[in-house]
Amino acid sequence: ERVRCAASSPSCPLPGGAAMHCLRPALLARLAGARHWALLLRRGAAAGGEEEERFVFPEYEPEPSETVTAAVPCREREPGRERRERSSVSAARRPDPSILPSGVSCSGCGAELQCYDSEAPGFMPAEKYRSLSDGPTGVTGLRNAVCQRCWLLCHHGQALGLRLPPEQHRLVVSAALRRPLRHGRGPLLLYILDLLELPDPVLPQLQGLMSPDVPAAGLLVVGNKVDLLPADAPGHLGRLRERLMAACAQAGLRGFPLVDVRLVSAKTGFGLEGLISRLQRSWKCAGDVCLLGATNSGKSTLFNSLLHSDYCKSRAPDVVNRATVSPWPGTTLNLLKFPIINPTCDRIFRRQERLKEEANKTEDQLSSEERKYLNHLKKQGYLVGEVGRTFQRQKSSTVVEFDPDMLSYSVDEEPRHSPKKPEESEEFTYNEVKDARWCFDTPGIIKENCVLNLLTEKEVKLVLPTHAIIPRTFILKPGMALFLAALGRVDYLKGEKPAWFTVVASNLLPVHVTALSNADAVYEKHAGQELLKVPMGGEERMKEFPPLVPQDITLKGIGTTEAVADIKLSSAGWVAVTADKEEELLLRAYTPQGITLVVREPPLLPYISAIRGARIAGNAAYRTKRPPSLVENLKTIGRR
């Protein structure tokens, strides 16, 4: 990896100026020290010379943000220039209370665009707002524009401190579901469920969001993020589907005809073509479809994938912008929508022909760009698919317009440049939408008693997994404790034999194993520090963070190859416990005060402890193992 040197002036002392390429020392150090198994870092304790153990993955450690600048500045900045630039930027971002709301929604989150309150949803800097709305088209110039919050999320990964009350999210969703019947029937509910969050805390609340006067026509439950979970044994997708169906039964949903249960990855595309085919076969174009679910379940990612698929009208991707996606809970603030295509017999036939043709392709037949993208997806998830399009609008060839008089000028004249014409935004025609059925993306329902509600933006990025989870297995004896960052802890209090504890969580969260007698001291010393990493911010951060509270758990082992239960530490992850048959274990699990702890029986991945390498000599940890990725629609890749 090379980084272009920032020196661009001829006076730069470095040879070559801007053409100079520099290797980053940090990258060289990472390449030299990286291993493909868990690295054990030993740190001497302050008292008694005891060693503390921290298990991390160098290849998943986030690189410290580095600003690439020239070692020697080529030109000194004008005194006071930075201050003037900051003042001009802050002035441009000031609100203007004299301007009324636009009535136009942000194309990223759905909030109404406005410039009178910088703390409210939909805020856009006043100068930008005027430049878009003062044109000949008026406020319609704001269409396809995004608010400041969506802009920062998309381009800088930065979340503004905007959190609406949970009740407001529920009101928006409930109002969408209680609208009068369209086309003589209620909507189809497409409930998006994060498989890592089973049992889903929001699914039982679905009944309270509906109106008895507007019954749902059906419920289709989609288990998302299946690509993050490794295959613990053959048939793991069937077992995951059974767990998902059991969760639907336990939620006690009455009056919702269950259409189907599907496993997908909205991010890598796995299972999406099958979901689209299922929707077009069973629901056709009978009515509207509403995407529902808790925050961070992947609704907006699925919305974007369906927008660029055979499920929407061919011209919709040119008119409807993609929804804003970020790990920050509650990104979508209002309704977003696109029109659903009518799956006629001819269209279904053409679509099936395309799917058959793609299923016969091999990886070698893909283009270089397709192979590059496929390899990128394989690094992110265990299960990969492709979402194609059968019905694409034929775009007319671009016509280059120019004025011949602008191409000629005398030596005494400066070249004249014609002003750039603003791009015309496309709109649906009346006939396209007069009787359309719509797919709606709704705001996520805030999960109560969730650890994510306690975390900052940087901490959320570390806690929520975005790449394939590599399980980490440890063998603990009675009298040992395991920390998952500073967000959860599991103590092995009593038992006759050692047991296996497999951590399934973000690869960026550290796991720390210590003696039970030292556990309290480790937490007091290292919570908020680098060893436990999350929360971050030192003593000041921990003063406001809730203390860990215990819950005793009794389990009985069912064999050394199958986990008996998962100890789910809220959204931080879970620990799968495997023990000898009939072995009784007394455990004590900790989560922050007010945060839900769940003992999941049976476990989600019962054979997860088998995904491990050899044990590291003299330690409780096993080396890690990453199963290979699978592609569902290529001929050369086997299916499960």
Automatic annotation (TrEMBL):
Q: Which residues belong to any copy of the NOA1/YqeH-like C-terminal domain?
A: 501-601
Give the top-rank taxon of the lineage listed in the UniProt record for this protein: Eukaryota
Q: Where is the G domain?
A: 289-339
Does this entry carry the keyword Secreted?
Answer: no
Q: Where is the signal peptide?
A: none
SUPFAM superfamilies in UniProt = P-loop containing nucleoside triphosphate hydrolases
Mind telling me which Gene3D superfamilies this protein's record contains?
Answer: P-loop containing nucleotide triphosphate hydrolases
User: What are the recorded GO MF terms, alphabetically?
Assistant: GTP binding
Record's keyword terms, sorted: Coiled coil
Q: Do you know which Pfam families this protein is assigned to?
A: MMR_HSR1, YqeH-like_C
- Which residues are in coiled coils? 345-372
| Basic and acidic residues composition bias: residue spans | 74-87
Residue ranges of region Disordered? 67-96
**InterPro entries with a match to the protein in the record:** GTP-bd, Mito_transl_resp_regulator, NOA1/YqeH-like_C, P-loop_NTPase
What is this protein called in UniProt? NOA1 protein
Source species:
Ramphastos sulfuratus
Gene symbol? Answer: Noa1
